[in-house]
Amino acid sequence: MGKTPKNLWTAPPTKVLRADPDSSIADLDTRSTPGFTGKKAEGKEQLETRGQVLSDLQELLYANGRSGDPRSVLLVLQGMDTSGKGGMVRHVIGHVDPQGVDHAAFGVPTPNEKRHHFLWRINKALPRGGQLGVFDRSHYEDVLVARVHELVPKKVWKGRYKEINQFEKELVDSGTTIVKVAMFVSLDEQKERLQERLDRPDKYWKYNPSDVSERALWPEYQKAYQAILDRTDTDHAPWYVIPADRKWYSRIAVTELLIDALERLELDWPSADFDIDEEKRRLAES
Ligand code: AMP
Ligand code: MG
User: Fold this and answer.
1) Cα-based angle 18, 19, 23 (whole degrees, multiple of 5)
2) Residue 141: CB within 6 Å of ligand 1?
């Protein structure tokens, strides 16, 4: 066993990253590392050690799910292109057993999805009991891109904040812990990441010409993000604001948020639903 690493958090991410009604994302320093005193090397070390803790807790959740526990955890990832949503799935969720992960990515709605209420496709993708659900984009796109591009009339998207709060309340009441993460990179950092996608053949696949057009709408997106933080940060489904220019930081921060969510379930190994001594005897005799 390696030595136990020092705790380099001066304040828990659940506290320092929680959306704050008194502050504006326009003032967020996207290069900052709130609550963490270490640098990149320590951050990377943390990701491994804490990733193992996350994995152990997820196994407990999965085991309980197999025994009929209806509870689940849902990580909702939102952020502009290049903010690191995909990397979060690979490097944080990558620590846990894929059997226990319900992953869903939401892109432009298909013609069929467009014919339904915006929560229809979301409902179909919710995690089952014992699963760690991960949404790469989510129902929040329907008050982000839909608002910025006026894909629906103002009256429609305006009503969605309330609908979302209601929907999430029901989800929480049915046993799902929701962890909502909004990742923010600066306009400059996004430019660098898009540049890399154009310079490296192994990254072309991530590049989408429309990402550059969207940059012109940055202030509108900021406004739409501010609105979701102002209107859909609730005690039952809180938002966490993640400075994401430093990928190592955003990853350890979200690892801690998930560990916290799982610990709060106070899970224990499910008890045997068979007679242990009797089974030991049968096995010995077999
Ligand atoms: P990516 O996550 O890079 O694969 O891109 C997915 C794209 O789908 C993004 O441009 C999103 O804005 C878009 N998208 C996701 N959900 C919706 C939605 N409900 N309505 C319109 N566009 C959406
Ligand atoms: Mg993209």
Assistant:
1) 130
2) yes
Pocket test for ligand 1, best of 141, 148, 220 (most atoms within 8 A of CB): 141
The whole-angstrom separation of Cα 145 and Cα 210 is 13
pTM of the complete model: 0.96
Q: Can you read off the two tokens belonging to residue 164? A: 């979302």
Whose CA is closest to 7, among 256, 248, 250?
256
Beta-carbon contacts of residue 118 (< 8 Å; ≥ 6 apart): 139, 142, 146, 160
Ligand nearest to the CA of 86: 1
Ligand of minimum distance to the alpha carbon of 209: 2
pLDDT digits 0-9 by tens, 70-87: 999 999 999 999 999 999
Specify whether the CB–CB gap between 220 and 12 falls below 8 A: no
Closest CA to 250 of 96, 38, 32: 32
Nearest Cα to Cα of residue 25 among 80, 75, 77, 92:
80
The contacts of residue 137 (CB under 8 Å, 6+ apart) are 77, 78, 85, 105, 106, 107
pLDDT tens for residues 178-205? 999 999 999 999 999 999 999 999 999 9
Q: Is the CB of 137 under 6 A from ligand 1?
A: yes
Ligand whose nearest atom lies closest to the CA of 122: 1
Instruction: Say how far apart CA 253 and CA 112 lie, in whole Å.
Output: 36
Q: Measured from the CB, is residue 224 less than 6 Å from ligand 1?
A: no
